[in-house]
Amino acid sequence: MPTTKKALFNWSSGKDSALTLYKILQNPEFKIECLLTSVNQQYQRISMHGVRVELLQAQAESIRIPLKIMQVPEMPTMEVYETVMTETLTELKNQGIMYSVFGDIFLEDLRKYREEQLSRIGFEGVFPIWKIPSLDLIQEFISLGFKTIVVCVNERYLDKSFVGRIIDQDFINDLPKNVDVCGENGEFHTFTFDGPIFSKPIDFEIGEIVYRKYEKPKTQDSSNKACDTNTADAFDFGFWYCDLIPK
Q1: Cα torsion for 110, 116, 121, 125, to the nearest 10°?
Q2: What confidence tens digit (pLDDT) does each residue in 20-45 have?
Q3: How confident is the model at residue 236 (pLDDT cuts 50, 70, 90)?
Q4: First-last CA distance in the chain
Q5: Phi, psi of 10 (to 5 degrees)
Q6: Which residues on adjacent β-strands are paired with residue 149?
Q7: Non-local CB neighbours of 186 within 8 Å, separated by 6+ positions
Q8: 8 A C-beta contact, residue 19 and residue 190
Q9: Do residues 41 and 73 lie in contact, with contact meaning Cβ atoms separated by under 8 Å?
Q10: I need a surface site. Which of 1, 29, 112, 157 has the fewest CB within 10 A?
């Protein structure tokens, strides 16, 4: 019998992660040893999603897979981010974990970056939903009984009315044509609170909706920022966040 491949799962708390985890758990080739999540060290919320750590921990408990939190500073440089990631992966490698699973769909540059960084440490990337059409993925997600709420939207693509909504067919129908239905370009982020991978639903109530705009890095070499984007006017736009309060 072939040896099962020990893997970590890059868990964002959102829908793509949930569907990807569902798929990889059905693959006997891999054994998921832990969920790895990047958390803003200052605010103790999931990076980019803005979800409280308490809800992240509730997800892991319901999924029944150990959670590994990677503490990352607010607006880290690429150097700082990669140092933290290398230290974390090296620790996991020492536990026999050699594979890293992602829920990426079609961003070629992002996959290339991940694979290059992983290879330096001796890891291999695994991408179970790669190149599956976004519409097929979201329809499968809903049909499987997953439930997810939009916790962050980028105002470049969506207005405040979209944050705090449950993703269903009405939500999909309301999306502008230039927005990927899975938000793969960063249009929106989600928190998944029920579905076939959970032993019980995550209980929460909806808190306030807040607007946040990030300052452009003051250094001339802005490419040295881990949150950097190639879009020149990226910092002209802000984000709407919906706070979720654990019950």
Answers
A1: 60
A2: 999 999 999 999 999 999 999 999 99
A3: confident
A4: 45
A5: -80, 100
A6: 166, 191
A7: 154
A8: no
A9: yes
A10: 1
Pairing status of strand 99-101 against strand 124-126: parallel
Distance CA 85, CA 71 (A): 10
Element (H, E) at 87: helix 78-93
As a whole number of angstroms, the distance between CA 242 and CA 67 comes to 23
Q: Take residue 127 and report the two structure tokens written for it.
A: 């991408």
Which residues make beta-bridge pairs with 38?
70
At 216, the pLDDT band (50, 70, 90 cuts) reads low
Percent helix, percent strand, percent coil in the chain, to nearest 5: 30, 25, 40
Q: Which of 199, 194, 198 is nearest to 148 (CA)?
A: 194
Tokens 């200052």 sit on residue:
42
pTM of the shown model:
0.91
Confidence of residue 74 (pLDDT cuts 50, 70, 90): confident
Residue 128 backbone phi and psi in degrees, to 5: -65, -25
**CA distances for 92 relative to 35, 116, 214, angstroms:** 11, 18, 32
Q: Which among 154, 146, 231, 228 has a CA at the least distance from the CA of 189?
A: 154
Contact (Cβ atoms closer than 8 angstroms) between residue 227 and residue 78: no
- What single-letter amino acid sits at 33? E
